[in-house]
Amino acid sequence: MLTGGQLAGLIVAVFWAVLVTFIALTLLRLARLLREAGEVVRDLGDQAGPLMDDMTRTVQRANEQLGRTDVITKQVAGVTQNVSAVTTVMTSVVGGPLVKAAAFSYGVRKALAGRDGDGAAHPGDAPPRQDRSRRGRSRNARSARPELQARSSGRGRR
User: Fold this and answer.
1) Backbone phi, then psi, for 125, in 5-degree steps?
2) How far is CA 101 from the centre of its chain?
3) What is the model's pTM?
4) How far lies 144's CA from each of 55, 80, 135, 137, 139, in Å?
5) Long-range interactions of 21-25: CB distance < 8 A, separation 24+
6) Distance CA 5, CA 3 (A)
7) How far is it, in rounded angstroms, from Cα 44 to Cα 40?
8) How many helices (H) and strands (E) does the chain have?
9) How far is CA 82 from the centre of its chain?
């Protein structure tokens, strides 16, 4: 039969054996994990060089394309300035005579309308001018009372 001290020593020895076994298994698993991590780091190191070379070539190609785009952008800016200059020239060359021709045709229409003698407004005629001497009045006062045009008696015409 075992005494109390021997029984306690036996329990401690069994507990100690279980603890050592558990720690040994844990250390074996940790060693396997560290070995696999070392392999992964080596593989990454082996692949990092070519990846960096590929990235360097990609960045160089992108810089070349950006350089070409910069040249194209400058050329488009030059074309835009040229088109603006041509537009300005065409406006001054064509616009002036067109305005003069429009004014001349308006004058001819007014003159022909005056020769007809009917005095009626024709489509395309400018609206009659309003008297601007009443600027001090408010807008509502002007719109409430329409202004009348002075009419000639026609005695001076013939």
Assistant:
1) -75, 150
2) 43
3) 0.36
4) 79, 52, 15, 11, 9
5) none
6) 6
7) 6
8) 3, 0
9) 25
Task: Give the count of beta carbons closer than 10 Å to the beta carbon of residue 58.
Answer: 10
pLDDT digits (tens, 9 = 90+) for 6-24: 999 999 999 999 999 999 9
Question: Using CA atoms, how far apart are residues 28 and 32, in angstroms rounded to an integer?
Answer: 6
pLDDT digits (tens, 9 = 90+) for 124-136: 555 555 555 555 5
Report DSSP letters for 7-46, one per residue: HHHHHHHHHHHHHHHHHHHHHHHHHHHHHHHHHHHHHHHH
Paired tokens of 138 = 């408010």
CA torsion through residues 146, 147, 153, 156, sign = negative
- Is residue 143 predicted with pLDDT exceeding 90? no
